[in-house]
Amino acid sequence: MSLEDYERHFDSLNSDLGSGSVVSERSASGTFSGEEEKLHYIPIRILGKGAFGEATLYRRTEDNSLVVWKEVELNSLSEKTRRDVMNEISILSMLEHNNIIAYFNHFMDKNTLLIEMEYCNGGNLNDKIIQQRGKLFSEEIVIWYLYQIASAVAYIHKAGVIHRDIKTLNIFLTKTNLMKLGDYGLAKKLDSEFSMAETCVGTPYYMSPELCQGSKYNFKSDIWAMGCVLFEVLTLRKTFDATNPLNLCVKIVQGNWTMDVDTDIYASGLIKLVYECLNQDPAKRPTADEILDQPFISCCRRELEERVVMLNSAMKKSKLSTVSETPVAVVTTRSREVYYWGGGKFTPQKLDSFKAGSSAQHVCAGENHFAVVSVEKELYTWANVQGGAKMVGQLGHGDQASYRQPKRVEKLQGKAIRQVACGADFTACLTDEDQLYMFGSDYYGCIGVEGKMGMEILEPVLLEFFEERHVRQVSCGDNHVVVLTQSGGIYSWGCGEYGT
């Protein structure tokens, strides 16, 4: 897209703001014409608050996908801030890349602007670093993260966009470790790679020396921020730290980072790249494309590219097709309720556990245990037994306790579960990566590990047999399992009594 195209696109978005043509059901006076396309959404939960407003998770009923609405109250914004908000929409709507948060739509509800964007269910990179609790990432993970970040930055730079706020909080992840660069409120379109910006923006921890000194800057300021992010991934510490902004700027300009990267853990080429990104002279910093050409990335780049495509295809929601009239977002309050019975309970019992972010999308029952996959693709299990009978691992919590209330299977944290199936006393679950996990009784060989792990498997185990045979669907009988693979193959195991 040329600079002229971009400016025309920006003007069209600004005209949308003035028209107020899109309303939601929250506006009592809202009316729908027969030609308007209605898109129905159910609110799930508030994800957080940003510089311009709240971010809320919604489920779109048409395709059951989860999306984020960034809600911006326009009345309270200055003219400059309004321009920043519209700038984010302009930037997002012209970018389409597997490692960038996708823009789907925007709506108006009276004086509230709603920006519909892609949802990442794994938090952000800052969360991921904190969750390490001081345990360093493996070099393989670091390269995987670096490749995805550099791919996103290379793409936006080719589009003439400088992000200006790259930081761990703005790098989002899915449960499968797919990364998405987001938050373009401060992004700026430059007409060439030699253009220089002057506004001092960004987050202090990731500001380049030229920003701290009030000098002109360009795309290489993003590379500095990338260096800070990579340093943080390698050390689990901020690159520069101080008690106040002035001291922080002094340390940045002096290149006085908090610590050195551990040379016993990481390869010299990776460490050298970090310090090249943190070079005080912008001209000596590599471009994002040059980062992708580093030997430790280029040697496995095709494999990394294929992995990104595969993970993205499992959760990608297509951009909305163009319609003759602006689509209308209809917010509904329809909810999914979970009921269960049996084990002495002769009437359905409603479970209040499944609401908001834990709302159910798939349920299954075994002989005396239950399993639910939530809309955020997390697995919950519980039991309904008499006299406190012990489980045999079919709940997947690592013990034999008979939990009476739904409990999330923590051992599957970081895995996006799309389907669950229950046998009499075992459980199978399938991830977005087409991986199959099993747990529970292996008395009849249902776990599929050839009895090598004992009679009771208390925690989920990955079936290595299917690592190269991607699973499309799994189904369980009382004592047997059947799997359909993506290639159309059918596999079964367990007890063959009665010809099953």
TrEMBL record:
InterPro entries the record matches: Kinase-like_dom_sf, Nek9_STKc, Prot_kinase_dom, RCC1/BLIP-II, Reg_chr_condens, Ser/Thr_kinase_AS, STK_NEK
Record-level Gene Ontology MF annotations: kinase activity
Pfam families the record matches: Pkinase, RCC1, RCC1_2
UniProt-listed Enzyme Commission number(s): 2.7.11.1
Cofactor: Mg(2+)
PROSITE patterns to which the protein is assigned, alphabetical: PROTEIN_KINASE_DOM (PS50011), PROTEIN_KINASE_ST (PS00108), RCC1_3 (PS50012)
Protein localization: Cytoplasm
Key words, A-Z: ATP-binding, Cytoplasm, Kinase, Magnesium, Metal-binding, Nucleotide-binding, Phosphoprotein, Serine/threonine-protein kinase, Transferase
Positions of RCC repeats: 377-433, 434-487
Residue intervals of the Protein kinase domain: 41-297
Family the UniProt entry places it in: Belongs to the protein kinase superfamily. NEK Ser/Thr protein kinase family. NIMA subfamily.
Annotated protein name in UniProt: non-specific serine/threonine protein kinase
Top-level taxonomy: Eukaryota, Metazoa, Chordata, Craniata, Vertebrata
